[in-house]
Amino acid sequence: QVQLVESGGGLVQAGGSLRLSCAASGSIFSTMGWYHQAPGKQRELVATITRDGTTNYADSVKGRFTISRDNAKNTVYLQMNNLKPEDTAVYYCNAMVMFTRRQYWGQGTQVTVSS
User: Fold this and answer.
1) CA-to-CA distance for 102 and 104, rounded, in angstroms?
2) What angle is formed at CA 54 by the lines to CA 49 and CA 55, rounded to 5 degrees?
3) Which of 45, 38, 42, 50 is nearest to 90 (CA)?
4) Alpha-carbon distance 109 to 115, whole Å?
5) Mind listing the pLDDT tens digit of every residue in the chain (115 residues)?
6) Which has the closest alpha carbon to 76: 84, 67, 89?
7) Could you tell me which residues come within 8 angstroms of residue 50 by beta carbon, excluding any fewer than 6 positions away?
8) d(CA 19, CA 29)
């Protein structure tokens, strides 16, 4: 069974940093990424990374967030620096299974940034 287990969320002050981790299991994954969803808003893409390391970022996080992955551990990370109150949201890990392209989601981890 495919499982995605997230960790690293929490409450920080503006300007602080957090590092989110998502440990995936049960398959080999092509693209992995992070999405976030604030109350009353749609889920939005934050960053994605392919198996060979190609990255894509939302404009709002470029220069502040860095996505990375460890293929041996099937784990994707999101280093979040210079956090802003508008980053406050539930962050969800997403992973696409190779060949079938079926996507799975983590349970979400809350990130709260105070002003």
Assistant:
1) 7
2) 55
3) 38
4) 20
5) 999 999 999 999 999 999 999 999 999 999 999 999 999 999 999 999 999 999 999 999 999 999 999 999 999 999 999 999 999 999 999 999 999 999 999 999 999 999 9
6) 67
7) 30, 31
8) 21
